[in-house]
Design goal:
The relative contact order is 0.14. It is built from two helices and 33 strands. The chain is an all-beta fold. The radius of gyration is 21 Å and the shape is globular. The protein has a domain of about 160 residues: Thrombin, subunit H (Beta Barrel).
Length: about 500
């Protein structure tokens, strides 16, 4: 295993795809398919057998950190992955921090990194060693990401190697802990174009670690805010905080928010990202909130003039567990038998149906979970229980839905009826979403076990292998490569 080496030369040599003006038809610039958020790739010719020890089909591997919960994003010859600073890539920056690495897609060498020191005062704002968990979204020459400090950032894809662009000029102070003198940034550091602080500018209360996949619609960025409970897990300190916000992608200006009084009933935090879809000729912004309710909002008009903060217009909402308590919900903290549900992952839209997983909170809630299909008017089509807590987003392909749970079970359901086609026991909790591609279903688990099933109504395990460390993030696929991030290492696999 080779270490990531900091060298400016890495950003100047290699594939022609490194040019920001050249795009790949098979890039993976956003977590899940654009808008629908489906965990399905159209890539072909992908390996079935991968092995980190024998290095079967291994293209490269790099050390990235010591605790990695991010999912790799691949765009224009670059791989972006969130991690922590447990393996410092710059000897001057040794403090516990969230890190976004930008790597060369060809060989994994470091091009630049964003370093965000941990938040001060309360460790529950930004849990120690958790790192930067959010998968970035790349459009053109800009990377949009929510870091561990609850700040939305727009970054230049070239880093500071081509100069300090944008309105933001204080990269050195920002990447240095407050109790130390500001460092001088260099060519291997991130170039921040603008930043928006969700705590000070939107009024949220961060909890544990931000996880948000930014959704782009024209001039707007839609994202979940990351607001949640305080350190007692029984109190909402900012009951007026938004759960869903909209920013201007060019400037970071705060444009709109929801005002559905979601915050007081958030059981833990707001970790589910929004989805945009057209159903029955109507565009809907779909959002699974931390109070266990799925909301449909009207997306903003691209012709919206500049002015005061707007309110997102609700079209409908549906409680995913209508029999569960929906007020004074923190009475049920640590109750494993009864209580509210929350939503960790994104809704997926395929053929006019909305698929969403929900359940009791993994850490503090009841041992119950389900997958549901809801139509474009917010009406329940079917609901199927699964073994235990669900963290991941469903993958829907050719009439079948794939989802894994923290009860150590993989499920294949009929997407039209919710009937179980098959299920399979797995080792370890599944925090990742399954990824479907090339007739296969890929999944890694928190025990480090990695599985490949045949996609279809018949259960057929094609391959399983043990990785040296837990896997939190979802498999990413781009340009004939399969990317698997463990807690400490990023692997790139492809047929040799």
């Amino acid at each position: 295993m080779h270490r990531i080496k900091a060298a400016l030369l890495s950003s100047l040599v290699g594939w022609t795809s490194l040019s920001p003006a050249t795009g790949f038809s098979a890039d993976y610039p956003q977590f899940g398919q654009a808008w629908s958020r489906n965990m399905v790739s159209t890539e072909r010719g992908l390996p079935t057998v991968v092995d980190p020890r024998s290095e079967t089909n291994l293209q490269w591997k790099v050390d990235i950190g010591t605790e990695t919960h991010g999912t790799p994003i691949i765009a224009k010859g670059r791989v972006y992955i969130g991690t922590n600073n447990g393996e410092p890539h710059d000897p001057k920056l040794k403090a516990d921090s969230g890190v976004l690495l930008c790597l060369n897609e060809r060989d994994g060498h470091l091009l630049w990194q964003l370093v965000s020191p941990k938040r001060e005062l309360d460790q529950f704002y930004d849990w120690p060693r958790t790192g930067l968990c959010s998968p970035p979204t790349v459009e053109g020459n800009i990377v949009y990401v929510v870091d561990n400090r609850g700040e939305v950032l727009a970054l230049d894809t070239l880093g500071l190697a081509d100069g300090n662009d944008g309105a933001f000029k204080d990269e050195g102070r920002r990447m240095t802990p407050l109790d130390l003198p500001a460092l001088q940034p260099g060519a291997l550091d991130a170039d921040i174009l603008w930043q928006f602080n969700l705590t000070t500018e939107a009024g949220i209360w961060s909890h544990d670690g931000a996880h948000s996949s930014i959704l782009i619609d024209g001039r707007f960025l839609y994202l979940n805010s990351g607001t949640g409970v305080d350190s007692t897990h029984r109190l909402i300190r900012t009951p007026d905080a938004p759960s869903l916000v909209v920013l201007d992608k060019k400037t970071g200006r705060f444009i709109a928010r929801e005002r559905e009084s979601i915050a007081p009933n958030i059981f833990h935090c707001t970790w589910a990202s929004p989805t945009l879809a057209e159903i029955g000729g109507r565009r809907l912004l779909l959002f699974g909130a931390g109070n266990g309710v799925l909301y449909a909002f009207k997306p903003l008009s691209q012709n919206l003039p500049e002015g005061p903060l707007q309110t997102l217009e609700k079209v409908w909402s549906v409680a995913l567990d209508p029999e569960a308590p929906n007020e004074r919900v923190h009475r049920y903290t640590s109750n494993k038998r009864e209580g509210p549900v929350n939503i960790y992952a994104m809704p997926v839209v395929v053929d006019g149906l909305i698929y969403v997983a929900s359940g009791g909170d993994l850490f503090w809630g009841k041992n119950e979970a389900s997958v549901q299909a809801i139509d474009g008017n917010g009406k329940l089509v079917w609901k199927t229980p699964v073994r235990n807590h669900v963290i991941g987003t469903p993958a829907v392909k050719e009439g079948l839905l794939y989802i894994a749970d923290c009860g150590r079970e993989m499920h294949c359901l009929d997407a039209a009826t919710g009937a179980v086609a098959w299920s399979d026991d797995i080792q370890g909790e599944a925090w990742a979403s399954p990824m479907v591609a090339d007739g296969k279903v890929y999944l890694g688990t928190r025990s480090g076990d990695f599985y490949v099933w045949s996609a279809g109504r018949e259960k057929k395990l094609l391959h399983s292998v043990k990785f040296p460390a837990p896997i939190s993030g979802t498999v990413s696929i781009a340009n004939g490569r399969l990317y698997v991030a463990t807690m400490s290492t990023l692997y790139s696999f492809g047929l040799k």
